[in-house]
Amino acid sequence: MVVPELPPEIRELKERVARFVESEAYPLEKQIAERGSIDPAEVDALRAKAREAGFSMLNMPPEHGGQGLSMLGQVAVEEEAGKATNGLGFAVVDRGPRELLEQVTPEQAERFVAPIVRGEWREAWALTEPGAGSDLSGLQTTAERDGDEWVLNGEKWFVTSEGDPGVYVVAAVTRLASPVCSPLIRLTASFGGYARRRSTCAFASIIAFPLTGPPPRPSSGRCRR
Q1: Given 57, 79, 96, which residue is the final one in a domain?
Q2: Of all helices (H) and strands (E), which one includes residue 204?
Q3: pLDDT tens digit string along 29-44?
């Protein structure tokens, strides 16, 4: 395997991230370990410092507020961020949801993705299910159209970044005839039957797949477009 030489600008960025992790993330990591608990405000402060240092949204295109860093560059800097505890490393090199840009309209990108890039909120990914784990081919959560609304039925576990996100990305299957993944459907959530343990979600979205197998029992909630 041939490992390419890092361009000077990526090498310099990698070194800056390494110094930041050593001076900012490691001390916080030590405090958390000694205390035995995580203070979300401390992690938010670390994320804000990293943003000021220019380490956030490196993967996002420049036209969407990022730096358009190459995959090689992203691997290089995330190698350094990954030397800290996982959650703190992600806070240092905070990636944006670039994959959503391939699915949404310009208006949806401005409404839902831009606030993430600006640091106003985070997205939470609802993929894992009790019977399927994170294997998308085994999804049982369904999304069914009902007039101007979509009804989500199913159960999600281990929602990434759950807590107080601005947008949820929900993987679900539909009764669409298309054999391929349909475009992302952006929804504003008004969950009447949405059972959850902590905060309320402001928005939701559905990544739609063809339905395989029987739908799960009705649960969850109803979303308006």
Answers
A1: 96
A2: strand 203-210
A3: 999 999 999 898 999 9
